[in-house]
Each structure stands twice: as structure tokens, then as C-alpha cells.
């Protein structure tokens, strides 16, 4: 399996760039009759309440595009649904927290960010007393970075030699992050240095890793990769077919169909797909692979580490493409632009893609439950609960349970660590002896 996915970095980049263009493949008229949200609980789609091209601006845009050139890939659909300049979910909505459609670990408890600050300090100290560049990829509202910085400042860790960068595609979210970290309602200018209030930390926003400084770099990617577009394939009696998105002129809704001939991504992954014997659905994300290799390439050149956390698996899950609305799972096609859309991360694919870059090595994946316990979440929660009221203690324990319980994020959320090969120490949190 490892050798099957050994694509060259340049080839993968070319394939991804090409996939941004519209597929001209013809499709069958056979609708994919199973819901694309949970393979283990598959039911027939009930689309009666779905948005139509009459009620949803993005569905209308996509219907025009599909009528002109045919069905589009799920990857194309995800890009439009999340980042369309006019109707994209991330460009129009407050997506995080109780008012949004999902809550991330940093929004649950400050303890999470405090423990990740421990990981940052440990990794940096393992590489000597060098300037430190801390990069968060997909920073949400800036809550996680704010918690990390608070710990760094309290420990008087580094200061003028600490450079912070936020990788963010959404203008709306960059503004939210500025409010959290700068205390100002501004529209941050890409690749422009700002100063954190009451500190000497340098902060800037980037949209390309090439804009980073040439320092040891420590990446944190918490729930970044699950938002990257995927291509979805389904096994049929005639072989693997890519699942596409079509528009139904009768219902005026979007629907799933199968491509009748091989697509560009299908050609690239042909040998990999042929070798799969035990799955009916496969999700592939060239963009995740490219980003992973970009991260590893930077670490190879400048040193450092990366911590990647997300809902995911090690190559065993099949159909995870789904939407979220008001903290509930919905079909991804039901109301694009107004719901979050995601797919679980295949950590095996990330590790195999990253291993194309020399001079880096990997640890994990490890469950969030084990990772946070190894970092001392139980000890930190006990300290935080001291001298608190009974109600406050209950809130602290409830937050910890959501982070570590198998019924919540504990086992479904995984972590992978990438280190430069010069760092011979096992990363903190990834060893049972921590």
C-alpha cells in the first residue's frame, strides 16, 4: 500500500492544479442512491427538505455551471460550498462555537490550548535556543493561539525571538482572529507584521507557506485537513467510478451520480484503487497531500516540527463525506453555503505523502484521549478546579470529558507529529512514559 501511493511531489502538484479546472467527463444518469454521510448507517436519501436552485443562491450557481459543462467532482463542490466569494460557508458565516455549526477543542476548554503550549515549548527546547516561528494552519477564531500565547508569556518563553504566523484563507475569519489576538477590528493585510498587545511577539497572516521566515518552525494544524476537498470513488461491477455532483431539473436539487469514464484523479490513483479489496468507497484528497508535503519541505529546510490533529482514521474508513448544521450531521448536498462540509482525514495518506520528503520522520497517529493524558490533562484540570465553586468544577470536568471521552472526541480525534530527523527525542505526548 505504501508503494502504491508513492507519487512524486511535482506530479501530485500538477495533478492538483489540473483538478482545479472543470472536469469534462461524461456521466451516467444513475443516481447514487445511498447517502454520503455514514457508511455504517447507510439509508436512502430523504431529500424532500433540501434546498433548491430557487431557494439557495449557491445551488443556483452550481446548476448553471452543471447545465453548461456537466456534473462536477465532489472536490469542486466542496471548494464552492466552503469558499465561494459570494455564497461560501466560510465567507459568510460565524462557524465556530455555540452560535456556529460545530465546536472545536479550543472552544471547549482553555486546557487544550495550554497543553499544546507545552508541546510547543518541549519541541522548541529540543532543538536548542533558536528563534522560534509558531504557525497555526486554519486558526478558527484565534482562540487556540491566544491560549498558547498566554502560556508562553506566563512562562516568559522567548519573546522578541518568537514569530507567529496564521495561515487563513477566509477574510472573515482573519478579521475574527485579529479581534481575538490584536484586540482590534481590522482586516489584516497578508504578509504584514503586526505587534501583539503588551508583548514583543511578531504576528502576521499568510496564504502561502513561502511567506514564512527562515526559522525553526512549529506547525499546529487543528481541524485543518478535514476541510480540504476530497475526490470520492465507489466500487461498481464495472470497476471504480468517481462520484460526481449533478443537478436534477425536476427537483431542482443537487444529486450524486457516477462518472461513466475515468477522470484525471481516477487515472492518477488507478493502481491504488485496483489494489483495494475490502472497501466499497474511497476518499482521496490531493490537496491534503500537497499541503502535507509543503509542511514537510519547510521542516526539512528550516527545522522544527508539526502537530496535526483531526477527525480521522488510518486508511480503514470508507464514506465520511457529510455536512454539519447546528451541531447535527446532515447530508452535504442539503443546503450548500449554509452548512459546514467535511470528510475525515486519512492519516495514512498524510504520512505516506509526507514521507516523500526526506529528512523528516513521523510519530502516531495517537488518539486525542491518550495524547492529552500524556500531556497531563488530568493534573491540569485538578489544578484549575482548585478553589472553584461546585458549579465551576462541574464545568471544568464536563469540558475535560468532551475532550477525552470515547463518546465525544477522545478516540475519534487523532494526532500525527512530524519532526526533522535531527531531533532524536520522541515528541511529548506521543510516549506512554510522558
UniProtKB/TrEMBL annotation:
NAD as UniProt keyword: no
One GO location term (cellular component): mitochondrion
Class of the enzyme per the UniProt entry, highest EC level: transferase
InterPro entries attached to this UniProt entry: NDUFAF7, NDUFAF7_sf, SAM-dependent_MTases_sf
Residues spanning the membrane: none
Presence of keyword tRNA processing: no
Record key words, sorted: Methyltransferase, Mitochondrion, Transferase
EC number: 2.1.1.320
GO molecular function annotations of the record: protein-arginine omega-N symmetric methyltransferase activity
Catalytic activity: L-arginyl-[protein] + 2 S-adenosyl-L-methionine = N(omega),N(omega)'-dimethyl-L-arginyl-[protein] + 2 S-adenosyl-L-homocysteine + 2 H(+)
Function, in words: Arginine methyltransferase involved in the assembly or stability of mitochondrial NADH:ubiquinone oxidoreductase complex (complex I).
UniProt-listed PANTHER family: PROTEIN ARGININE METHYLTRANSFERASE NDUFAF7, MITOCHONDRIAL
Protein's name according to its UniProt entry: Protein arginine methyltransferase NDUFAF7
Species annotation: Rotaria socialis
Amino acid at each position: 500500500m505504501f508503494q502504491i501511493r508513492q507519487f512524486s511531489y511535482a506530479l501530485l502538484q500538477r495533478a492538483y492544479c489540473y483538478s482545479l479546472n472543470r472536469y469534462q467527463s461524461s456521466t451516467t444518469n444513475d443516481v447514487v442512491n445511498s447517502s454520503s454521510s455514514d457508511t455504517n448507517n447507510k439509508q436512502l436519501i430523504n431529500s424532500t427538505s433540501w434546498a433548491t436552485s430557487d431557494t439557495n443562491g449557491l445551488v443556483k450557481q452550481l446548476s448553471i455551471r452543471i447545465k453548461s459543462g456537466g456534473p462536477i467532482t465532489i472536490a469542486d463542490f466542496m471548494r464552492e460550498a466552503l469558499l465561494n466569494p459570494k455564497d461560501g460557508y466560510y465567507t459568510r458565516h460565524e462557524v465556530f462555537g455555540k452560535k456556529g455549526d460545530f465546536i472545536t477543542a479550543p472552544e471547549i476548554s482553555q486546557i487544550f490550548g495550554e497543553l499544546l503550549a507545552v508541546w510547543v515549548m518541549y519541541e522548541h527546547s529540543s532543538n536548542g535556543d533558536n528563534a522560534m516561528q509558531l504557525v497555526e494552519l486554519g486558526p478558527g477564531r484565534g482562540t487556540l493561539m491566544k491560549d498558547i500565547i498566554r502560556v508562553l508569556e506566563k512562562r516568559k518563553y522567548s519573546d522578541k525571538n518568537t514569530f507567529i504566523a496564521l495561515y487563513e484563507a477566509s477574510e472573515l475569519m482573519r478579521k475574527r482572529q485579529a479581534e481575538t489576538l490584536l484586540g482590534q477590528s481590522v482586516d489584516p493585510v497578508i504578509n504584514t507584521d503586526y505587534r501583539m498587545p503588551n508583548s514583543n511577539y511578531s504576528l502576521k497572516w499568510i496564504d502561502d507557506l513561502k511567506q514564512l521566515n527562515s526559522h525553526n518552525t512549529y506547525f499546529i494544524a487543528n481541524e485543518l485537513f478535514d476541510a480540504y476537498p476530497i475526490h470520492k470513488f465507489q466500487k461498481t461491477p464495472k470497476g471504480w467510478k468517481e462520484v460526481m455532483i449533478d443537478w436534477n431539473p425536476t427537483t431542482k436539487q443537487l444529486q450524486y451520480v457516477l462518472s461513466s469514464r475515468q477522470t484525471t484523479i481516477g487515472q492518477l490513483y488507478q493502481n491504488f484503487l485496483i489494489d483495494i479489496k475490502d472497501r466499497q468507497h474511497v476518499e482521496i484528497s490531493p490537496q491534503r497531500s500537497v499541503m502535507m508535503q509543503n509542511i514537510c519541505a519547510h521542516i526539512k529546510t528550516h527545522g522544527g516540527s508539526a502537530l496535526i490533529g483531526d477527525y480521522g482514521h488510518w486508511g480503514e474508513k470508507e464514506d465520511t463525506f457529510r455536512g454539519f448544521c447546528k451541531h447535527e450531521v446532515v447530508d452535504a448536498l442539503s443546503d450548500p453555503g449554509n452548512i459546514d462540509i467535511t470528510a475525515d482525514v486519512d492519516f495514512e495518506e498524510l504520512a505516506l505523502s509526507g514521507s516523500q520528503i526526506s529528512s523528516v520522520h513521523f510519530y502516531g497517529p495517537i488518539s486525542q484521549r491518550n495524547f492529552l493524558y500524556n500531556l497531563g490533562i488530568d493534573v491540569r484540570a485538578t489544578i484549575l478546579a482548585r478553589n472553584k465553586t461546585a458549579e465551576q468544577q462541574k464545568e471544568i470536568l464536563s469540558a475535560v470529558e468532551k475532550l477525552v471521552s470515547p463518546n465525544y472526541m477522545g478516540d475519534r480525534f487523532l494526532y500525527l507529529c512530524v519532526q526533522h530527523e535531527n531531533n532524536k527525542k520522541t515528541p511529548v505526548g506521543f510516549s506512554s512514559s510522558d
